[in-house]
Amino acid sequence: MITTALCALLVTLVGAPARAATLPETFALPDGFQPEGIAIGPGPYAYFGSRATGSVYRADLRTGKGKIFSRGPGTPSLGLKTDGRGRLFVAGGTGGDARVIDTRTGTVITSYTLATSSTFVNDVVLTGGAAWFTDSTSPVLYKLPLGRDGALPGAAVTVPLTGAIQYGTGINANGIAPSPDRRSLLIVQSNTGKLFEVDPATGATTEVDLGGETLANGDGLLLSGRTLYVVQNRLNTVAVIHLSRDGSSGRVVRRLADGRFDVPTTIAAFGDRLYLPNARFTTPPTPDTPYNVVAVRTGR
Predict the structure, then answer these.
(1) pTM of the model
(2) Cα→Cα distances 155→104, 145, 183, Å
(3) CB 12 within 8 A of CB 241
(4) Which of 8, 38, 51, 209 would staple 76 via disulfide (CB 3.0–4.6 Å)?
């Protein structure tokens, strides 16, 4: 016979794993870290880059706990992307570099000098057998062509941007993502709020028709199917855009906002959640300034 006390014990034991499996919706990063980029995977592990020191912090999304696993070079680590080969690609901001880090050990596998002056290497995407980096102050993309089995190249290729995009004062090309058909690249220009399609073979750009909508302060991009998420950092908003198959047009179907947003910059997905680090650009940074990461539902 199962007693009442035993039933209560069984409920407690059975219920415990379910509660433990609930992912935290907010978790802390180190004080003074100044986060910018985020990459997730493989598995439930997220990586965050520091624009202050270039260090990379790795967190387990199941617990929110983590640690610095790769010490920075003293220059920024901004946009991040992981591949399926245990590598993390890092955009180096004012350092003008790209780094590839081993996600198992935190060591730098190799580093590339992309530019030596007037540079702000801001974000990175992996697509079409290459890693592509934006530069927010120079009208170019940097390409790391990947060889057989993802072999890293000896040097980067600079691809000038031509056509519709015109660089001006402030942050220009920022976030980057593939188009839904994977034949082109998408970049958002922060200072104009425009979205552009880029021919990766030539660097020619055309403006994506958003039906009159703009993406002011556009920062990190995330493509899921034909849905493009655009972080509008200082607006504390994520624009959700339904794109045409070729990426030449789209419409803003909704905007996500959350009271926990404090100038989020970049975005990555895990399950049915979107994770965003709060960069807190409007808060003067100090060694004791707290930073965190928030998760919101995709709403599908």
Answers:
(1) 0.91
(2) 24, 9, 23
(3) no
(4) 51
